[in-house]
Design brief:
The protein has 63 residues and is an alpha+beta fold. The protein has helices spanning 3-7, 25-32, and strands at residues 40-41, 44-45. The protein has two helices and two strands. It has a two-stranded antiparallel ribbon. A hairpin with a 2-residue loop joins strand 1 and strand 2.
Length: 63
């Protein structure tokens, strides 16, 4: 069976709903992935000083 045809009934599968919501990636990295704690072990921290973000294209219109 064609997987693409099966997924057509889900309206947000093209962009996984990201076209309707703003994703606060910086907040997710700073607060969520580390569980809210910052510590150093063997010259390595669980939250680094900065994360480079790449420019993103806006969601495309679905016909």
């Amino acid at each position: 069976m064609d997987k693409k045809k099966d997924a057509e009934f889900l309206p947000d599968t093209h962009y996984e709903g990201k076209d309707n919501f703003y994703l606060d990636v910086d907040r997710m990295v700073n607060e969520g992935m580390s569980g809210g704690s910052v510590h150093m072990r063997a010259d390595s921290t669980n939250i680094e000083e900065e994360v480079d973000f790449f420019p993103e294209d806006p969601p495309k219109e679905i016909e």
